[in-house]
Design a protein that fits this description.
Blueprint (H helix, E strand, L loop, with lengths): L11 H11 L6 H13 L17 E8 L9 E9 L4 E2 L10 E2 L1 H6 L1 E6 L3
Antiparallel strand pairs: 1-2, 2-5, 3-4
Length: 119
């Protein structure tokens, strides 16, 4: 069941803050992500964090924005975490590709920025 069920969008940010605050990985997630990124760039994948990937489209999400890999020394620029429901996703309008996006309400109220780096 969604923690946002029956709540209006004005309540989502507080719900998200409580969810992230009580998540056992939240205090370490930025460090895990940055160390895993360095590991990936050095040719080793999944050295620091072993997560089970499920098929559900609802649950905790970790969103990581990074530089193009073609750049020299690419960096992570943004790490966000939150709970997303399958209804938060908008299908791509075009028939080509497989890119989905989040609704503005979900992007603003259900993902918290844990890390941001200026370019």
């Amino acid at each position: 069941m969604s923690p946002y069920e029956g709540k209006n969008t004005g309540e989502w940010l507080e719900i998200t803050e409580n969810l992230i605050g009580s998540h056992p990985l939240a205090p370490n997630i930025v460090d895990f992500c940055l160390k895993s990124w360095e590991s990936i760039l050095n040719g080793k994948i999944n050295t620091y964090l072993n997560l089970r990937i499920g098929k559900s489209k609802s649950g905790y999400y970790l969103a990581i924005n990074f530089d193009k890999l073609s750049e020299s020394n690419p960096k992570i620029r943004l790490i966000r975490m939150g709970w997303l429901d399958h209804t938060d996703w908008q299908a791509q309008k075009s028939e080509t590709g497989q890119q989905a996006s989040l609704t503005k309400a979900a992007r603003d109220g259900k993902l918290l920025t844990l890390y941001s780096s200026e370019k």
